């Protein structure tokens, strides 16, 4: 009874557009971009594009990649997505060391700080774990089996992060929830002890990151949401330490950018949407960079770890391009913040594998007001060769940006916001359900 | 809707709402999107609306009373009514996903409060999907008893993840229960009884109560007799299968 009725997680099949993703090696030895099913890597040490090697039964990805990341050491790279495959790559040789088959599409990945466990979340809210013990040495291509570790009840998990001290794994979902779970000795037996929930967001939680420093090794959690806020949390207690409203009326300096940008791209009046789509902590250890759904650039927040506060710092606009980043990435060591915009599977659009990559440098923090600088294409590490590899082409026409920003809006909205069916529509869906049809 | 017809939906002799006006679909799909308000966090739950006499709105109590018992899938509320007078100083809540059924319980409690002044002030009900929103209602370790009486069986294997007792949901119940808190489950479906017992038995943060403890626990007797479903099973002479477990500290 009621089987086909709107099971969450099953109903996103219609959303085919996938935002481009970027990830940067912790020491900036390489940069990776995913557009659709295409995974592109540029080696900054060898200054050359990387060819990935994948001998598994199902080589490479065959559907949109939804999550990519390096582990803390930079030795491993993980990619996963709609083709229900989690691929673990060794970054020495860019060889796929393991290809894990999942039952459902994968929405987020994380690697434990010791590099021994890869966790990934599926569209039904289950977080799975695979052990990499032993693999690093023999490099055997193992078709691993994942064990269920924890679950959010049937809610898409949008982000997964290990805490800097490795004690907790944090998972965020589109039901406004952030769950903090104690990482057990053997994660394969399941993580049953919930430390706390961080509750307070009033829309889907889209992104998580930890900010920490030598003085604050446990770090604080930062979350971004469709409710246009970024929040700072203590994950041991689940307490909300500070909330920063994006485009808050009190901060005219910044709403100006958001409003101006929005009307420029849309040409029509609509509620400005300041949904936070991605965030990442910056190399200087105090800034947090945000991608905001209608901002052509990035917003920077200041995080004061000792005072436990978040405040708006500045907006870095990308001049001359309609670049609304779909994903942000950074390396801890090199002082660069990378961004990408792009989209795949956009209907009626033939540049669907194109993406645009930019980088912002954070100068050494000697003077307090060192301005972040948007690098020109010839200033970016790797230069033209890198752009050719990661973007798919050296120069990207403005039509690509416009299409991408429009598509990003739709995909964010439909991927993350719950479907609101009117009563009639709900009745209609019930009447036309396949299971019912079969029975009568 | 019900306000208009108060005279006819209430039984004249008992003053209680009549169940037939609150009939609803037999089963709900707990996975489907529903539209009812959910507190953003436990601190946003308005106790004064639910327990106006025991937790008044304008109180400057530093340590206000909190809910300690939760009846998950409370149905028509028979257990709450029985527990109310047995533990008059404990706040209790029923969680029920079916709108009409939760409305019925609400009316039932308010009628009991009217006919028995000063009593039944410690019980209330919310319409919610307990499988999704328990952490929105209760803080860590807040509850001392949780009840799962005659839950929907969801027989098919592929629907097992809809069961209110499952390995992953037990993690949430363990979070919500204080160490020493007790979880009570009972069913007339043997297979479900085994499933619930198995889930609890295999969970590192629960241990079974001993025979003697079960005998001394007043509440255990209510499992088969207090709820509407329990009474129905008893009338039909059905067998029941219970599992009663204590929340313990996680192993180090
Ligand atoms: C068979 S009845 C038992 C009711 C009651 N405990 C009794 O013993 O009479 C199960 C009840 O659980 C409710 N229920 C099922 N899933 C639920 C959920 N996810 N959250 C809250 N209530 C739920 C159903 O609506 C139904 O009223």
TrEMBL record, chain A:
GO biological process: tRNA (guanine-N7)-methylation
Top-rank taxon: Eukaryota
Gene3D superfamilies, alphabetized: YVTN repeat-like/Quinoprotein amine dehydrogenase
Residue stretches of each WD repeat: 61-93, 198-243
Keywords carried by this UniProt record: Nucleus, Repeat, tRNA processing, WD repeat
Predominant location: nucleus
Pathway membership: tRNA modification; N(7)-methylguanine-tRNA biosynthesis
Subcellular location(s) of the protein: Nucleus
InterPro entries: Trm82, WD40/YVTN_repeat-like_dom_sf, WD40_repeat_CS, WD40_repeat_dom_sf, WD40_rpt
One Pfam family this sequence matches: WD40
GO CC entries: cytosol; nucleus; tRNA methyltransferase complex
UniProt subunit comment: Forms a heterodimer with the catalytic subunit.
Entry similarity comment: Belongs to the WD repeat TRM82 family.
Function: Required for the formation of N(7)-methylguanine at position 46 (m7G46) in tRNA. In the complex, it is required to stabilize and induce conformational changes of the catalytic subunit.
Listed name of the protein: tRNA (guanine-N(7)-)-methyltransferase non-catalytic subunit
Native source organism of the sequence: Rhodamnia argentea
Lineage: Eukaryota, Viridiplantae, Streptophyta, Embryophyta, Tracheophyta
TrEMBL record, chain B:
Binding site for S-adenosyl-L-methionine: 73, 96-97, 129-130, 149, 227-229
Broad class of the protein's primary localization: nucleus
Pathway(s) this gene product operates in, as recorded in its UniProt entry: tRNA modification; N(7)-methylguanine-tRNA biosynthesis
InterPro entries, sorted: SAM-dependent_MTases_sf, Trm8_euk, tRNA_(Gua-N-7)_MeTrfase_Trmb
Active site: 152
Gene3D superfamilies associated with the record: Vaccinia Virus protein VP39
Keyword Methyltransferase tagged: yes
CDD domains linked to this entry: AdoMet_MTases
EC number: 2.1.1.33
Entry's transmembrane regions: none
Catalytic activities: guanosine(46) in tRNA + S-adenosyl-L-methionine = N(7)-methylguanosine(46) in tRNA + S-adenosyl-L-homocysteine
GO molecular function, one term: tRNA (guanine(46)-N7)-methyltransferase activity
Cellular component GO terms held in the UniProt record: nucleus; tRNA methyltransferase complex
Keywords for the protein's UniProt record, in alphabetical order: Methyltransferase, Nucleus, RNA-binding, S-adenosyl-L-methionine, Transferase, tRNA processing, tRNA-binding
Localization in the cell: Nucleus
Entry-linked HAMAP family: tRNA_methyltr_TrmB_euk
Family in the record: Belongs to the class I-like SAM-binding methyltransferase superfamily. TrmB family.
Function: Catalyzes the formation of N(7)-methylguanine at position 46 (m7G46) in tRNA.
Name of the protein in question: tRNA (guanine-N(7)-)-methyltransferase
Organism: Rhodamnia argentea
């Amino acid at each position: 009874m009621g089987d086909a009725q709107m099971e969450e997680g099953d109903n996103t099949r219609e959303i085919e557009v996938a935002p481009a993703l970027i990830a940067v090696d912790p020491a900036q030895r390489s940069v990776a971009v995913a557009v659709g099913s295409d995974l592109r890597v540029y080696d900054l040490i060898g200054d050359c594009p990387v060819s990935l090697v994948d001998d598994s039964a199902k080589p490479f990805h065959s559907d949109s990649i939804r999550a990519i990341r390096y582990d803390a050491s930079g030795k491993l790279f993980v990619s996963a997505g709609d083709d229900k495959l989690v691929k673990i790559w060794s970054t020495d040789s860019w060889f796929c060391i393991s290809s894990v088959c999942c039952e459902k599409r994968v929405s987020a990945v994380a690697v434990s700080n010791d590099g021994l466990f890869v966790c990934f979340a599926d569209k039904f809210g289950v977080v799975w774990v695979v052990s990499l013990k032993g693999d690093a040495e023999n490099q055997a291509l193992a078709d691993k089996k994942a064990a269920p570790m924890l679950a959010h009840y049937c809610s898409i998990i949008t982000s997964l992060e290990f805490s800097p001290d490795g004690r907790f794994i944090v998972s965020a979902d589109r039901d406004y929830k952030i769950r903090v779970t104690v990482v057990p000795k053997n994660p394969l037996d399941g993580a049953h002890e919930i430390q706390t929930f961080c509750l307070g967001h009033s829309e889907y939680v889209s992104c998580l990151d930890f900010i920490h420093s030598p003085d604050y090794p446990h770090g604080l959690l930062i979350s971004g949401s469709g409710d246009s806020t970024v929040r700072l949390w203590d994950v041991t207690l689940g307490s909300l330490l500070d909330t920063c409203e994006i485009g808050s009326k009190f901060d005219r300096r910044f709403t100006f950018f958001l409003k101006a940008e929005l009307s420029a791209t849309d040409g029509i009046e609509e509620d400005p949407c300041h949904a936070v789509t991605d965030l990442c902590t910056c190399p200087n250890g105090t800034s947090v960079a945000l991608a905001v759904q209608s901002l052509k650039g990035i917003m920077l927040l200041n995080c004061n770890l000792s005072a436990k506060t978040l405040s708006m710092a500045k907006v870095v606009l990308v001049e001359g391009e309609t670049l609304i980043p779909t994903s942000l990435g950074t390396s801890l060591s090199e002082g660069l913040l990378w961004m990408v915009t792009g989209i795949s599977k956009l209907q009626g659009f033939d540049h669907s594998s194109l993406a645009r990559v930019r980088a912002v440098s954070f100068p050494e923090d000697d003077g307090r007001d060192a301005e972040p600088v948007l690098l020109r294409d010839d200033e970016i590490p790797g230069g033209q060769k890198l752009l050719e590899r990661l973007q798919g082409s050296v120069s990207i026409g403005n039509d690509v940006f416009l299409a991408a920003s429009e598509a990003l809006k739709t995909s964010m909205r439909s991927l993350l916001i719950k479907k609101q069916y009117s009563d009639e529509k709900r009745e209609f869906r019930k009447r036309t359900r396949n299971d019912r049809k079969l029975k009568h | 809707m019900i306000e208009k017809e108060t005279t006819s939906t209430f039984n004249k002799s008992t003053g209680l709402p009549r169940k037939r006006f609150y009939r609803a679909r037999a089963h709900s799909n707990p996975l489907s999107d529903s539209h009812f308000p959910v507190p953003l966090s436990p601190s946003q739950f308005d106790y004064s609306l639910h327990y106006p006499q025991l937790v008044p709105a304008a109180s400057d109590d530093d340590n206000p009373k909190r809910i300690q018992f939760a009846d998950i899938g409370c149905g028509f509320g028979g257990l709450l009514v029985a527990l109310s007078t047995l533990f008059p100083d404990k706040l209790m809540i029923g969680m029920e996903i079916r709108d009409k059924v939760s409305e019925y319980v609400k009316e039932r409690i308010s009628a009991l409060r009217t006919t028995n002044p000063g009593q039944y002030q410690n019980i209330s009900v919310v319409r919610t999907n307990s499988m999704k929103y328990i952490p929105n209602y209760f803080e860590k370790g807040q509850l001392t008893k949780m009840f799962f009486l005659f839950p929907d069986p969801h027989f098919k294997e592929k629907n097992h993840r809809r069961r209110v007792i499952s390995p992953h949901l037990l993690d949430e119940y363990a979070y919500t229960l204080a160490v020493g808190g007790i979880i009570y489950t009972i069913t007339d479906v043997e297979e479900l009884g085994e499933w619930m017992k198995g889930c609890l038995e295999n969970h590192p943060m629960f241990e079974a109560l001993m025979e003697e403890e079960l005998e001394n626990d007043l509440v255990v007797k209510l499992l088969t007799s207090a709820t509407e479903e329990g009474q129905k099973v008893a009338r039909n002479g059905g067998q029941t299968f219970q599992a009663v477990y204590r929340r313990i500290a996680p192993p180090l």
